[in-house]
């Protein structure tokens, strides 16, 4: 009697396991279905936002106008860890970081959220006045957790008050002159 009960439980267990998992197509080939709702990044090809920057020099400083437009077709929720919505990093020709906006400016430390509607633009302007004349690379991006919208562009500074130069020390005339 106990043998029959064990066999029935085992048979019920095997039959109940049939049909779960992968599906077959009639030729005993396994057809694997992926649910794109569980992993939305697999089906996303198009960009949600379009970032752009415009660079111009005036009054011995460089002005960076950064715009991000929502082109997703619907609203996007953005969360910012501080009051700073956008940031930039300037690199020299060797790839060394020269300056970063967030390291020089104070901002609130409150988490803020915003709804970024379809076709809405976020605009930020930065004025950089202390770069030497020369060639740089600038990276501008959103500080939102959901979207960075990064733009990297070459930056040529020609009208700065600062110039980098080098010289040769040949000697000292007296204790306070070189």
From TrEMBL:
Keyword Signal included in the entry's annotation: yes
Domain Intracellular proteinase inhibitor BsuPI stretches: 54-146
Gene3D superfamilies: Intracellular proteinase inhibitor BsuPI (2.60.40.2360)
Cited Pfam families: BsuPI
Signal sequence, renumbered to the chain: 1-21
Keyword Transcription regulation: no
Keyword set, alphabetical order: Signal
UniProt-recorded name of the protein: Intracellular proteinase inhibitor BsuPI domain-containing protein
Source organism of the structure: Neobacillus niacini
């Amino acid at each position: 009697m106990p043998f029959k009960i064990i066999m029935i439980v085992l048979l019920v267990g095997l039959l109940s396991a049939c049909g779960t998992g992968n599906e077959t197509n009639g030729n005993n080939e396994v057809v694997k279905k992926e649910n794109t709702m569980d992993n939305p990044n697999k089906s996303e090809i198009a960009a949600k936002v379009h970032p752009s920057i415009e660079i111009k020099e005036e009054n011995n400083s460089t002005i960076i106008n950064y715009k991000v437009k929502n082109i997703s077709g619907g609203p996007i929720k953005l969360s910012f860890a501080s009051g700073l919505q956008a940031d930039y990093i300037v690199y020299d020709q060797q790839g060394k970081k020269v300056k970063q906006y967030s390291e020089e400016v104070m901002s609130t430390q409150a988490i803020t959220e915003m709804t970024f509607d379809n076709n809405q633009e976020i605009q930020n302007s930065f004025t950089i006045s202390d770069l030497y004349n020369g060639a740089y690379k600038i990276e501008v991006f959103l500080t939102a957790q959901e979207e960075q919208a990064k733009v990297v562009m070459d930056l040529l500074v020609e009208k700065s008050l600062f110039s980098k130069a080098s010289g040769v020390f040949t000697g000292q005339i007296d204790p306070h002159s070189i």
